[in-house]
Amino acid sequence: MLLNGYVNSGCRRQFVLDNDRQIIVHPWQNMTDIHWPIIVSSWDVSSNKLELRWHWYPPKSINDHNFMTQPTMDERGTTYLVSMPSAFSINSNGQTLWISELATNDEMRQFELISICLSVNLRARVMYAVIGSPLYHEGDSLYFISALNMDNGNVLKRYELNIDSKSKITPHCPILIGSDMFYFFWLTGEYPGLVPLKVSGVPQIKL
To answer: InterPro entries from the entry (predicted)?
Structure first.
């Protein structure tokens, strides 16, 4: 079945489908608003006509931050996203289940932290959010991975990445191997110079 429909005025292409491939959840920015606020929307795509199910509006604390991870959905239809300084989950009816703070106000100001990506272990019910300073940030940088309980949003562990605070890196999403290890990799340096690839293996959280 081909789907063709105009869903919003935003510029983001990332979305997630539910297990039955009938529901889309899509974060986007409303460019008709001067502040370009982030909105998360859900659409029914079970027919050839797109039908809006709900809009979800993030908390005011992230209104000034337009970096948001790709959405992830579990078998219950719950969607998980990160936009600094918060991680949050939204149920299948568009209601907030939990919101968790991943960084302090001081860290946000000093390091201009952004959410980079999100990996999840659906069986273990643990999600891993990669957080760091953007390449355009001037001054010392900070990079870490937060592990969260997907059921209640509790931060289980914060993995501090031992990377020189003067370094500029391009982090990528962790690759999860079963429930034993995850592998985090990043590029160092900036184009057009040499950009070495580095990899670190870390044990996963056991609930």
So the answer is: Sensor-like_sf
**Other Cβ atoms closer than 10 A to 157:** 14
pLDDT digits 0-9 by tens, 50-85: 899 999 998 877 756 668 888 999 999 999 999 999
What is the chain's Cα-based Rg?
Answer: 18
- What is the distance between the alpha carbons of residues 180 and 80, in angstroms, rounded to a whole number? 22
3-state secondary structure of 107: helix
Q: What are phi and psi of 38, to 5 degrees?
A: -80, 135
Question: Tokens 């006509």 sit at which residue?
Answer: 49
Helix-then-strand count for the chain, H and E: 1, 16
Which pTM does this prediction carry? 0.86
Question: In sequence order, what DSSP letters do the residues of the chain get, joined into one string?
Answer: --------S------EE-TTS-EEEEEEE-TTSTT--EEEEEEE-SSSS-EEEEEE---GGGTT----PPPEE-TTS-EEEEETTEEEEE-TTS-EEEEEE-S-HHHHHHH--EEEEEEEETTTTEEEEEEE--TT--S---EEEEEEETTT--EEEEEE----TT--EEE-PPEEETTTEEEEEEEES-TTS---EEEEEEEPP--
Give pLDDT, residue 168.
74
Give the chain's domains with CATH numbers.
Answer: 65-203 (2.40.128.630)
Q: Count the Cβ atoms, other than its own, within 10 Å of residue 92.
A: 16
